[in-house]
Amino acid sequence: MHRSIATVSMSGTLRQKIEAIAAAGFDGIELFEPDFVHFSGSALALQRMASDHGLRIDLYQPFRDLEGMPTAHFRRSLARAEHKFALMKELGCPTLLVCSNTSPLSTGEPERAAAQLYEIAERAARYDIRIGYEALAWGRHVRRYRDAWKRVALANHSHLGLILDSFHTLSLQDDPTDIATLPGDKIFFLQMADAPQLQMDVLQWARHYRNFPGQGQLDCEYFFEQVLKSGYEGPLSLEIFNDQFRETPNRRTATDAMRSLLWLESRVRSRLETSGDHDRLWRQTATQAWLFKPPAVPVLNGVAFVEFAVDTAHAATLGTLLASLGFHLAGQHRSKDVQLYAQGDIRLVVNAEPDSFASQRFERQGGPGMCAIGLGTPLPDQAAARASALLSAAADTPRRPDELHIPAIVSPGGMRIHFVPTGAGTPGFEAADFDVATPSSGAATLSRSPRPGPLLKSLDHIALALPPDQLDSWVLFSRAVLGLEPGDSQELADPYGLVQSSSVCNDTRSVRMVMNVSSSRRTGVAHAVNASGGSGGLHHLAFACDDIFAAVAQLRASGTQFVPISPNYYEDLLARSDLDPALVGKMHSLGILFDQTPLGAFFHIYTPRFADRFFFEVVQRVGGYDGYGALNGAARLASEAQAADAASRDAVAR
Ligand SMILES: O=C(O)c1ccc(O)c(O)c1
Ligand SMILES: [Mg+2]
Fold it and tell me: Which residues form the VOC domain (predicted)?
């Protein structure tokens, strides 16, 4: 596949954009006209700069308000076009994008538009340049690809074809199915963009909120599949107008861009393979050879461990907190200052080893935080190979011969993800790396009292606090590299601003992640991001249990603190639900929060923040509840804010 990206999709000067695009392995660019108009060099210099970086200038765009115009206006546009054609020859650019007219002066008769498109194609042909006509979703008369195609077909000129842009079709909820019936060689260029589903003016939506395929909610796969079925063999390009991307360092954007295309190709490739269409396309166009095929999506069977980066002091205080939550010290690393805490299936690694990756993260974050996640999978090397194919850097560390081989990769923001071997006959990572203690051996003395069984059974979810410009990166990374799928997404109110909470999980729900972002600088999420040195980090860890009432009663009895919840919350809960008042009374006395959906119910409770950073949550899922109680986050945030406020008033009064 020839992979391309519009220069409008990235931040930086044109030279910086080209460098970043080339470094990510693209074959070409769409030159966005303002980028050239403001470029300090000549067309020839730009052509050389692009080719020195191994990039072709595939498209010059956009050319506006051409078709359906009164004759005098059209003549002026032709003169403007002649100028652009000469320029494009110097740029070595073969195709001009003409977008559908938005001018109130334009008229809608297809014949007039076709005649004018024919005429510009005739002029372009003298330069051996092709005209691609694109329907803008907010065009005055032409908004859909069928209407654009009608005019292209009527004009019937060898140098006139269609440009398709997934955003314009999918934003209007138009059906892409008929694209498959178009002649593929009359589609001159393909632009792909995804976007979150928003209820807003389509022009604003298009100019500010597009994102890369896999980051939004449009069905880009189906769209691309239809284009390939037409027999299209041209470039696969990204054209993303996004306010966030305009400020994000462009190397990161370019890597995300390439990851998005590779993932899109692989998804559509397997769709074509399963639908049986691939044989026909293979014979016609060898499309299969172009569509990227990474190693298979990893089967994930849970979070094998979460690793904290701490110093010696925090290793002790975190250990005490974990012990108060029912964890026992289950092992000491054979060669490093690293402890393993366990409860049920949960394994928490507390790493205070100097001169290690953990200590670097600790320094960078200026305090304790999460530095790694271990994901269990039967085929760790294959998972790591997929990650590498999809542009994640490997992070393998030197190990002693007796340490287990656990491949690791770098996630957005720098945290590591390890792929931990699981399955019959594979040693657990702890047996290989740790001198393992059992709860009944001496190491269990940390646990305050012997308990019949674990209070907390498994890790329910990992919640991250991310800077706003990392959410899209994380969503794409989770989907493409880890094979997770987007789930529940919510907006919740912090007393100091809004927080947007998105989630991803695997099909068995053994791996769940929540990603919180806030554009306010004063929310708890923003605080966590700042505390992590701006790169994002752990927001909280949630542990699942089978009986939250029993667990919380026991934990409270042994002195564990939880965030207090207002009595008004429980009165409101009684008023808005048909829950048994006795149950609500129990929740009230223990401080347990509640959420429900038609699928099931959710009980949960939060601890205060540890070292002013992350916190823990205890949850119980009932039935098929698949969310995260996000709206109750507001109860926690209000409670924390009021406690802080009260503390500062006390301090003043004293
Ligand atoms: O927003 C625009 O004007 C615009 C221009 C060119 C495109 O290809 C497009 O999709 C949108
Ligand atoms: Mg477009």
Answer: 302-422, 458-608
| Ligand number with the minimum distance to the CA of 137 | 1
What whole-number distance in Å separates Cα of residue 481 and Cα of residue 373? 14
Of all protein residues, whose CA lies closest to atom 9 belonging to ligand 1?
136
- Give the closest residue (by CA) to ligand 1 atom 3: 62
Task: Please check whether residue 429 is in contact with residue 380, taking contact to mean a CB–CB distance below 8 angstroms.
Answer: no
Q: Hunting for tokens 């300090």 — which residue is that?
A: 40
Extract long-range pairs of 82-86: CB within 8 Å, 24+ residues apart: 82/123, 84/60, 85/123, 85/124, 85/126, 85/127, 85/129, 86/127
Tell me the per-residue pLDDT of 195-204, one tens digit each, with 9 for 90 and over: 999 999 999 9
DSSP label of 398: -
State whether the beta carbon of 206 lies less than 6 angstroms from ligand 1: yes
Helix (H, G, I), strand (E, B) or coil at 127: coil
Domain spans of the chain? 3-290
Average pLDDT over residues 515-525: 90
State how far the Cα of 315 lies from the Cα of 328, in Å rounded to an integer: 14
Q: What's the rounded Cα separation, in Å, for the pair 45 and 36?
A: 11
**Residue 252's closest CA among 413, 482, 485, 28?**
413
Q: Rg of the chain over CA atoms, in angstroms? A: 28
CA 540 to chain CA centroid, Å, is: 19
Tokens found for residue 389? 């194919």
Q: What is the pLDDT of residues 552-586, one digit of tens each?
A: 999 999 999 999 999 999 999 999 999 999 999 99
C-alpha closest to that of 536 among 415, 393, 357: 415
Q: What pTM, to 2 d.p., does this model score?
A: 0.94
**CB-based contact 425:419 (threshold 8 Å):** no
Cβ–Cβ under 8 Å, residues 344 and 589: no
Length of the chain: 654
From CA 591, how far away is CA 562, in angstroms rounded?
8
Burial class for 493, CB neighbours closer than 10 Å (0-12, 13-18, 19+):
middle
One-letter amino acid identity for 13?
A: T
30 Cβ below 6 A of ligand 1: no
Q: Can you tell me the distance from the alpha carbon of 381 to that of 409, in angstroms, rounded to the nearest whole number?
A: 11
Domain 3-290 has CATH 2.70.70.10: no
Pull the structure tokens for residue 178. Answer: 């008929």
Q: Which amino acid is residue 635, in one-letter code?
A: A
Q: What angle do CA 215, 219, 221 make, to 5 degrees?
A: 90
